[in-house]
User: What shape does this take?
Amino acid sequence: MNTSNMNAAPRALEGRVALVTGGARGIGRAIGLHLADLGAAVGVLDLKKELAEEAVAELASKGQKGMAFGGNVAERDTLMDATAALKKAFGRFDILVSNAMWVRYGPIAELTPEMVRRMVGTGFESVIWGIQAAEAHMGEGGSVINIASAAAFLGLPRGLTYAGVKAGVLGLTRAAAVDLGPRGIRVNAICPGFTATEGVMVNVTPEMVQKRLARTPMNRVGVPEDVARVAGFLASDASGFVSGEYIKVDGGATFAHL
Ligand SMILES: NC(=O)c1ccc[n+]([C@@H]2O[C@H](COP(=O)([O-])OP(=O)(O)OC[C@H]3O[C@@H](n4cnc5c(N)ncnc54)[C@H](O)[C@@H]3O)[C@@H](O)[C@H]2O)c1
Assistant: This one.
């Protein structure tokens, strides 16, 4: 994936240390590559360690620094241990991107406790544990970026739990920004619209893609690099007085009345 020409401020993250959850593929992988292009050492955390190792190998092949972690973000220790390990290895910890998610859409009647718990654990509780780990291991200053979704604003068909989880992530973002602001730690969210990733494309038909395009003023589907560029901005000092905020990356779709 070529992300080298994606940001106007080259090396904006030189010397900083980041962790990206769900960083083995999709949006998380693009974010990790981009933060590394900007100079950060990047921890890649994913359910399967071997997949995280592949992502870190891609960084290493470009002479960039990374560290792979396997683990479930729904468990508090996963985030706490990974951020502690990064701090030990690189001497500091500056940027957390809480991106991992597991999602199933479906009729309300077919929701099971297991599905709901997994979605809430992966997409909501993990953000809390991430914020706790950031508070514990960041110094004076840092950036937490929570990947929410345009679904936070939409009456999403068959997406009851997902929409609720992502709306909740925006609430966590605002509250954490207040608590961590005095430490110079900024907390923001990104709300991607429809973005072509492995995780999404297996669940959609060509007709669904056409429907999305018809509702997107910019008339294209998002790509992971669209989100990665905004993560680079929120991670860097260019957004140094931005906190408790969200940025939609959706080609204008979510609030368009098409
Ligand atoms: N793709 C889209 O259209 C879209 C739109 C809006 C928001 N988002 C959000 O962007 C983020 C990334 O989405 P994506 O499309 O790249 O997803 P994806 O399914 O392609 O990748 C998600 C990654 O998270 C990992 N993961 C899942 N559960 C985990 C767990 N419990 N612990 C650790 N890792 C885990 C997976 O192994 C995978 O590598 C998610 O938060 C998603 O909700 C995506």
Observations:
- The chain has eight helices and seven strands.
- The first helix runs from residue 26 to 37.
